[in-house]
Each structure stands twice: as C-alpha cells, then as structure tokens.
C-alpha cells in the first residue's frame, strides 16, 4: 500500500485551486514498531516544516475502537493539518530537507490516507 503521494498525485492535487487553503485529513495505520519513528517525524514536522510553510496541526489523536466500520477500517491515528494553500503543501513535500525526514514517516506506516478537505460553503 502506498503511504506517500506520487508526483502525479501532487500534480492532480494542484489542479484544484492551488492558492486556496486546505485541511489535510491523515488516517494512519502504523507498521509494527512504527509509532516511535512516526513520533520523530511528527516532531520535525511541527518544529521545522509546518512553521516554514505556514502549516498548523489542528488536531492529532489516537484512533479508538470504531463505532461504525467494517473489519480492518479502524485507524491507529488521525490528524488534521491546515495549510495556507495546496501550493504550500507541495512546496513542503518538494523540500529536500523534508524528503530526508519523511523517510521516518514512510517506514512508520503500514497504510495511510491523505485526504484534502475544503470547507463547505454556507447554506
């Protein structure tokens, strides 16, 4: 299973208003022993890369027992990360220093969903 976006994924992501803010939903399933590696990645993300690119973690939490889900659909962790734009997210992902750190995330995860979200318009 893929846990990182591909170049094609990022190109498609930018076709939807690259300058508009976006909140990225992260659903994470850890590989055996992956929590420590992910914690190291998350610390670097919060301390270095999110401030550099204007991002902000607005929620991070452990996944509990799912109330409504099929077997295997529960997640170990959930994060919501706000970025000032899709372009800012892509610039972060392209940063060579980030690419070095993101290896910690890649080895930590067995499965992941990165779902961009935008607010519903009123009414």
Automatic annotation (TrEMBL):
InterPro entries in UniProt: Dimeric_a/b-barrel, DUF1330
Residue stretches making up the DUF1330 domain: 36-110
Signal peptide: none
Pfam families the record matches: DUF1330
Designated name of the protein: DUF1330 domain-containing protein
Organism in which the protein naturally occurs: Micromonospora orduensis
